[in-house]
Amino acid sequence: MPDTDRLGLRGGYGRDAAAFDRTRPVCPPQLFTGLVRLAGLTPGDRVLEIGCGTGQGTIPLAERGLAVTAVELDPALARLATARLARFGQVEVITSSFEDWTPDGSFDAVVAVNSLHWVDPAQRYAKPARLLRPGGALAVAECRWSTPDDADPFWADVQADYRAVGFAGAPPPPPEAIQPEPLPPEARAFFEDLAARRYPFTVTYSPEDYLANLAS
Questions:
Q1: What order do you get walking across the sheet with 132-141 strand by strand?
Q2: Domain-wise residue ranges, the chain
Q3: What residues pair up with 93 in beta bridges, in sequence order?
Q4: Each residue of 54-100: pLDDT tens digit?
Q5: Could you confirm whether domain 3-143+179-215 is CATH 3.40.50.150?
Q6: CA distances from 154 to 24, 170, 208 (A)
Q7: Buried b (16+ CB within 10 A) or exposed e, 66-77
Q8: 159 burial type by CB count under 10 A (0-12 exposed, 13-18 middle, 19+ buried)
Q9: For the chain, what is the HEC assignment?
Q10: Mean pLDDT lowest for which of 53-62, 149-158, 177-186?
Q11: What pLDDT does 2 receive?
Q12: What is the rounded CA–CA span in Å between residue 21 and residue 54?
């Protein structure tokens, strides 16, 4: 993604923070259980979350007893995250871009859920590596769209709208075609590939909610 597009798009989700919160997919509990196990985390360990949005991924981390510092660049999303995470005593939400934020100390893990692709490529892996204690883990999760055979025709038809505004439209692949992705080459100077896992889950969207998701 060109840098101008990345910077312009990543700051727009707070225009309708409520729609973002309502329509963004939430990863299944098994993903967070697996993350904690694979990273060797225990209650009280310090975790940095990059781009927490309204806290959809922060809550499962906090529920597992982790001390989470969540960094979110959009003020509207950060306010919603702060409100919904107030019940956890070991969670702090910082309003800042990840690139500009200066941390206090090191972390046992750095977690990015649907967010790492928005970080400056020059700092995407280099900065998490600097912030981790020796033996710490970087965990990257991403929700990938799929379309089952019996999906509403809307999901194929909407691809023409993508093409009309300059994006490459293509129907999402079937669920069985989505497989875990290995560590990308640009990350290998900083990290070793520990594991890649696939956690299938279902989100049922109406076309209206899907369009609200895009608009947010």
A1: 91-95, 67-72, 46-50, 107-113, 132-141
A2: 3-143+179-215, 146-175
A3: 70
A4: 999 999 999 999 999 999 999 999 999 999 999 999 999 999 999 99
A5: yes
A6: 19, 12, 11
A7: bbbbbbbbbebb
A8: middle
A9: CCHHHHHHHHCCHHHHHHHHHHHCCCCCHHHHHHHHHHHCCCCCCEEEEECCCCCCCHHHHHHCCCEEEEEECCHHHHHHHHHHCCCCCCEEEEECCCCCCCCCCCEEEEEEECCHHHCCCCCCCHHHHHHEEEEEEEEEECCCCCCCCCCCCHHHHCHHHHHHCCCCCCCCCCHHHCCCCCCCHHHCCCCCCCCCCCCCCCCCCCHHHHHHHHHC
A10: 149-158
A11: 57
A12: 6
Q: How many other C-beta atoms lie within 10 A of the C-beta of residue 88?
A: 18
Instruction: Evaluate whether 88 touches 106 at the Cβ level (below 8 Å).
Output: no
